Amino acid sequence: MSHKGKWSGRLAYFYYISGSAYYLSHWFLTFGGASFLAGSISFYYGVPLLGAILLILSLFAIVFGISFLRKMANARYRSHNPGLHVESIKIDYKVIDDQNCDYTRHVKVKSLFPVEHYQALFNWTGQGDAIAIGLDGVDHTKILKHLGTVDDICRVHFGQPLAKGKIYNFAYKLELREATKPIRPFLGYTVDVRLEKLILRVQLPTNRKYNQYKRQMFISLKDNLHLWEEIVPIEDHQYNLEWIIPHAGRYYYRLSW
Asked: Which fold has domain 84-256?
């Protein structure tokens, strides 16, 4: 995160650091394997105390590594795209006026097994009609109701199944029109499975003046527990906002103006 931002407290920073460790499972497994090998060599050369310490360390490291891998696998399995490893997402959000906007998502995925579509939840505060349009790499799109929630699902069909291990880039657009309520001034995204990069970009109407915008990170959208915030000034005649987030963890990110 940017050094100019502020954490809501020490516990928030500790939570973020501990959450980052969630993705270090391969380091735990590597350390565990190396410790096991070193411990075995120590026993072979007649240093049992050192060997026992190293074997105990290897056991703990391997258990932690496997535990984190299981958590990652469960998070992906519970997501809307269990067959895809989503590597990066770029969102372009164009605010036309208080009742109309365009939402374009560019996605890079890797297929874990043959899969024919990608799907994502969405809702917008205007509560009007949405039209889904396939852009690059998309055969057709479909909007479905997410039962029991206020969200909808945009399903993006690739046209044919992606082969296992295939890297695929695609984009689709949601045209949100004739809102029944004023559009609230923010763009948010919840990361369910860690991304290599998340980019949020907003294009604002040019007939208004803006002073600043906020970049915020929350534990989740539902809990609304604030972790981190950065206030960024907006210069005169600046209507494009951007937030580039490398290694985006499982948090809710919001850009508001």
From this structure: Immunoglobulin-like (2.60.40)
Amino acid at 255: L
C-beta of residue 251 within 8 angstroms of C-beta of residue 183: no
Residue with tokens 């809307």: 80
d(CA 232, CA 234): 7
User: Where along the chain do its domains lie?
Assistant: 6-78, 84-256
Write out pLDDT tens, residues 81-130: 999 999 999 999 999 998 999 999 999 999 999 999 999 999 888 887 89
Closest CA to 202 of 101, 93, 123: 93
Containing 158, the helix (H) or strand (E) segment is strand 152-162
At 253, the amino acid letter reads Y
Q: Which residue has the higher pLDDT, 50 or 126?
A: 50
CB of 87 closer than 8 Å to CB of 109 = yes
